[in-house]
Amino acid sequence: MRSFFSALLTAPLVALAAPPQAATEHVKARLVPAQASVAPGQRFTVALEQDIKSHWHTYWINPGDSGQATTIEWRGAQGGAIQWPTPAVQPIGPLVNYGYEGRVALLVDVTVPADAKVGGRFQPEADVRWLVCKDVCIPEQVTLGLDLPVIAAEAQAQAGAEAAQIAEWRRAIPQPAPFAVQLKPAAQGVQLSGPTAGVTRAYFFADTWGAVTHSAPQPLKAQADGWTLDLTAGEDPVKPGRPLSGVVTLTTATGTQAWTVSAPMPEGAGQGPAPGAALAEAPAPAAASPESSLGLLPALALALLGGLILNLMPCVFPVLSIKALALVKQGDHKAEGLAYTAGVLLSFAALAAVLIALRAGGQQVGWGFQFHSPVFVGVVAHLLFLVGLNLSGLFDIGGSFTGVGTSLASRQGLAGSFFTGVLAAVVATPCTAPFMGAALAFALSQPALVMLAVFLALGLGLALPFLVLAFLPAAQRWLPRPGLWMDTFKQALAFPMYAAVVWLLWVLAQQAGPDGVALALGGLLLIAFGLWWRRVSGSPVVGTAAAVIGIALALALTTGLRPVEGAPAAASATHEVYGAERLAELRAQNKPVFVNMTAAWCISCLVNERVALSRPEVQQAFAQGGVAYLKGDWTREDPAITAVLKAHGRSGVPLYLYYAPGAAEAQVLPQILTPGLVIEAISSATPASRSST
C-alpha cells in the first residue's frame, strides 16, 4: 500500500518533467543521454542534437564576423563546457562565419547532484538558446529535460539506447593535438606552424572572436618537416605572453583531421599592421546581411556611431544647436557637458527599462514604440510648442528648461543642460539613423543588461559632440564669436520646433482623429493664453500661476487622447496596402515586390519617401520592371507589421524589402535610401545574386 501511494505522489512530478525534445520553426532539438540510469555524484555525457532546417545554420563557439553561439543553461544538474564539433566556414559576401548546417550534436558532461536520492528520478532541465540564420537571423530557444532513474553507486549503470550514436558524435569532436604548435609574429599578424608533414590543405579556427581576421586568406606553406599558416591579426589580436587557441584542420594523403591547439605569443613580440587589412580587398556584399547577428562589441560600436549620426537628423539638430549657443560664451563648460550627457543617458536608460519591462510581459515592441501612443505624441507636441515659444522670446524660463543664456556655474544652468539632454533623447526617438537598426535589433534579442549597454552606447553617441565641445576648449574655437547674432539665431531655431508641432499634430490626426487634434489644439491655446496672461498681468505671482495652470490644463487634456479605429489605410496610384496575403499572392504569381514598412511619426521614413521612393525615376523603374509596391503603416501599433520587422531582424521602421521574381527570401535595403540605390536593387537583384547569411 505504501508503494502505491508513493507512486501516486511521484506520478505528477514525472509528468511535469521537461520533454527531451522540442522543435522551433527552424530547428528540432533533443537531449540524448549516454546512460539509461545514473548514480549520485556521477558524471556522464549528454548530447544536444540539432536538426537544422535546410539552408539554415547555427553557430560555433566563435561565430566569426557575425552570429551567436548556442548556449545551454542547466537546472538541477551541473553542466560542463560545451564540446564543439569542427565547424564549417560560411562565407557571406566579405564576411566569414563559423557554424553548422543539417544535423549537429554538441556534447556536454553533466554531473548528477551528490544528494540525488537512490530510487528517485534525475530530472534536470536545460534552457537551450541559439541563433539560426539564412537570409534573416532568428533567435530561438527551447527547454529540454531528462528523466532517468537514480541507482546506487555500486550498481552497474546501463548504457543509453543511443550510446553508440554518442560515441560516433564524440569522434567529430576535435581532440588535443599529439604535436606542439608554435606561434610567432609576422607581417600581417602571426604565423602558426606545426611538424606534420605532407599537409596539402590547412585552416585555423580561432576559438575567440577577433584574434584573427576571419575573412582573411590563410596561406599555407608546406615543407618537408611541417607546415605554416599565415594568419591576419583581427580586431583583438593575441598579446605577447597570451595564447592563441582554436582548432586546426590538416589535410594529408590519409584524409582530413581536426585538432585543438594552443600556443603562446612570445614575450616582447610585436604584431603586424592594421587588423582586418584583408577586408579592404574583399568583394562587396551582394545584399544587406542580417542585422540581428552581431556580437556585443560590434553592436556597441554601431550604436555609438548611430547615436552620433542622430545629431544630424532634423528632429535632433535644432536641440543640439540650442545647446551649442551656451558654448559660444566664455567659461568652463565641463559641468554643463556632463549634465547634458547625464540627461541623455538617463533618458535612454529609462527607455531601455520600459522596453525590458514590456518585453518581460510578452509584448513585442521596438524603437519608437512610444509614438504609438496618442498621449505621448500629444505631450511631445506641447513640449516642443513650449520650447518654440521660449526660443521666440515670448517668455523666459531661465535655465530650468533649455539652459540657454544662464550662468554656467549656477544650479539652474546645470539643470537646464540636464533637461536639454532629456529633450534631445525624446525628440530623437522618431528618427532612425544608419547603423542603428543593426544595434537595436541585436539589443532587443539579448538579456536585459546587454540591451541596456547598447542603449547607453546609443545615448553616448548622441551626447558625444556636445561633450567633446565642452571638454576641449580648442574645439570651441570652431564656434563663431558671441554677438547680437545669437539672439536672432536662437529665435530662428523656434521655427523647426513649430514645424515639429505641425508634424506631430498630423501624426495625431491619423492616430486619434479630428477630435484628438481638436483636444491638442485646445491645449496649445491654453498654453498661449496662460503665457499671455503672465505677460499682461501686473503681478508676477499671479502671472506665473496663470502660466503654470495653463500648461497643466493643456497637459491634462492630452490624457483624453485615445486611438480611434479609423478607415483602413488606403491604396494610391503608386502603392497598395501591405498585407501578408497580398504579398503571398504576388509572389505566387512570380512578380517582383517592393515592401515599405513606415510610420507617420518616423522622420527617416518620410525623408526616404520624399527623396527616393516618390521620385519620378524610381516610380518609372517600378513601372518598367512591373514591381508591385506594398506599403505597411506602423503609425498605430500593428502586430502583423511588428512580426515582419522581427522576422527581418529589425526593432522598428523603416524597413525596405525587395522580393525578386523566384527569390526565396527578400533583399533588405539600407535604412537611408537614394534613388540610385533603389533602382540598382530592383534592376540587379535576381535569385542568383541574393546574399545568404
UniProtKB/TrEMBL annotation:
Topological type in the membrane: Multi-pass membrane protein
Residue intervals of the Cytochrome C biogenesis protein transmembrane domain: 300-505
Pfam families xref list: DsbD_N, DsbD_TM, Thioredoxin_7
SUPFAM superfamilies per UniProt: Thioredoxin-like (SSF52833)
Keywords linked to the UniProt accession: Cytochrome c-type biogenesis, Membrane, Signal, Transmembrane, Transmembrane helix
Entries under InterPro entries matching the protein: Cyt_c_assmbl_TM_dom, DsbD_gamma, DsbDN, Thioredoxin-like_sf
Full protein name: Protein-disulfide reductase DsbD family protein
